[in-house]
């Protein structure tokens, strides 16, 4: 199977280069809060991934991205098409994304995604995610 890497069809704020993400999973859904790059106004965005089949958070420095099996870039969201990562759940038409931050790479196979919060407030992603969870509770 031939794999290719594309930009997701969703329009998402660019990833900032200072903070690593804050991540919460309840076993079915995953919330990822990341710093928005100043070029897109700064602040934080929280993405909710629903119908998550597989999720990994790996330590990987941006200098090591060239060693990865998929062509991914630093501080970027890449959708991987034709990967064996989605084969097991192909009847559900899952999507496979890799999201790269300073020292963390997130791999996620999921069904749907949506932005649940986009804020220009200057705070660390972990604080923004905690405040969001306290205000709204965990994903449904």
Topology:
Layout: E1 4-6, E2 22-25, E3 30-35, E4 44-50, E5 54-59, E6 77-81, E7 95-100, E8 104-110, E9 112-119, H1 125-136
Antiparallel strand pairs: 1-6, 2-3, 3-4, 4-9, 5-8, 6-7, 7-8
Description:
There is one protein chain. The protein is mainly beta. 9% of the residues lie in helices and 37% in strands. The protein has one helix and nine strands, in the order βββββββββα. It has one helix at residues 125-136; strands at residues 4-6, 22-25, 30-35, 44-50, 54-59, 77-81, 95-100, 104-110, 112-119. It has a five-stranded antiparallel sheet, with no helix packed on it. Strands 2-3-4-9 form a four-stranded antiparallel sheet, with helices on one face. A hairpin with a 3-residue loop joins strand 7 and strand 8 (104-110). The radius of gyration is 15 Å and the shape is globular.
Question: Biggest sheet, open or closed, and with what strands and sense?
Answer: 5 strands, antiparallel
Task: Kindly state the percentage of residues in helix.
Answer: under 10%
Give the strand tally.
9
* Unreliable parts: none
Spatial strand order of the main sheet: 1-6-7-8-5
Strand content: 35-45%
Over all CA atoms, what is the radius of gyration?
15 Å
What is the general shape? globular
> Which structural class do the helices and strands define?
mainly beta
Q: Which series of helices and strands comes N to C?
A: EEEEEEEEEH
